[in-house]
Amino acid sequence: MINKIDMHTHTVASGHAYSTLMDNIRTAKINGIEVLGISDHAPAMPGSTHEYYFSNLRILPDYIEGIRILKGVELNVLDSEGNVDLDDRSLSFLDYAIASLHLPCYEGETVKDHTDALINAMKHKIVKIIGHPDDGRYPLEYERLVIAAKENDVLLEVNNSSLSPNAFRENAHENYKEMLRLCAKHEVKVIINSDSHFHEYIGAMNHAMALIEDIHFPKHLIVNFQALSRFIDLKSEFEKNRR
Ligand SMILES: [Zn+2]
Ligand SMILES: [Zn+2]
């Protein structure tokens, strides 16, 4: 199966990634990607970029080298209330956001805190994806998360980087098995993303697919293969209001 979407990718603007936007786009083209999301780390991540970077993404064309470019951000969920580190004005210029928990930017302590943080982050309409809900350092109540994702029409991510042998997140395999079992039970859709920090990985889904095949997860619940329009038609609130 050919992957046509990668919604979770980083550029040098993130501060700990090593390729430019054009490096990523050229690799996307070679790898057959049709929709590429730019999702650099929001400002609370040490070494990442200023909020102006995100509000100015709107100057980029919708298509570069024939690839639909979606302008996004990987937000840091800051607390169990689901607060995030870009204000509504900056977010209004973007097409979508991923909401993720990251060690240096989040202060919750319990399983309930971590789960509440991600579910409450879904209240921001711009959040379309929950990033890497797989890290044993932040255990989650998966059934509650899966049901909330369905209710809010937010995609849960299967993060290819988390499943790589040199990943720093913990227990991703076991956690994804549990999450995907519940996604199948409740008919909840997932998206596979590379979380590329170097252009060679754009569109990579090898580790995620190995797991998907291993547990026979239903393909109709994976949006990478069947719902391109869901992404191609994404338009920022800013653009919608302007028209
Ligand atoms: Zn992340
Ligand atoms: Zn990321």
Task: Offer a concise description of the structure.
The protein has 243 residues and is an alpha/beta fold. 32% of the residues lie in helices and 14% in strands. The radius of gyration is 16 Å and the shape is globular.
Question: Could you give the topology of this structure?
Answer:
Blueprint: E1 5-6, H1 21-30, E2 35-38, H2 51-55, E3 63-64, E4 67-71, E5 74-76, H3 88-92, E6 97-100, H4 111-121, E7 127-130, H5 142-152, E8 155-159, H6 172-186, E9 190-193, H7 206-214, H8 228-232, H9 237-242
Parallel strand pairs: 1-2, 2-4, 5-6, 6-7, 7-8, 8-9
Antiparallel strand pairs: 3-4
The structure holds zinc ion (ZN) (2 copies).
Structure, described:
The chain has 243 residues and is α/β, with parallel strands linked by helices. It has a single domain (5-235), classed as TIM Barrel. The protein is 32% helix and 14% strand. The chain has 9 helices and 9 strands. The protein has helices at 21-30, 51-55, 88-92, 111-121, 142-152, 172-186, 206-214, 228-232, 237-242; strands at 5-6, 35-38, 63-64, 67-71, 74-76, 97-100, 127-130, 155-159, 190-193. The strands form 2 sheets. Strands 5-6-7-8-9 form a 5-stranded parallel sheet, covered by helices on one side. It has a 4-stranded mixed sheet with strand order 1-2-4-3. Strand 6, helix 4 and strand 7 form a beta-alpha-beta unit. The chain is globular, with a radius of gyration of 16 Å. The protein starts with a strand and ends with a helix. 49% of the residues are buried. The site of one zinc ion has 5 residues, from loops.
